[in-house]
Design brief:
This protein is an alpha+beta fold. The protein has one domain. Strands 1-3-2 form a 3-stranded antiparallel beta sheet, covered by helices on one side.
Amino acid sequence: MESDKIFIDIRTSELTLTQVLQEIQKIQAENPDYEIFLDGDAHAIAGRIKARR
């Protein structure tokens, strides 16, 4: 299984909440095969390849 991909490191990012939400939409559009989520342990917006059914 592939490890999660970090898209935005919240700890070092200076983005506002609105900007983060806009970036999430952009990331989702550019990476339709990834499930995008907030990783609380890593303090990051991350993604993992969607499980195939």
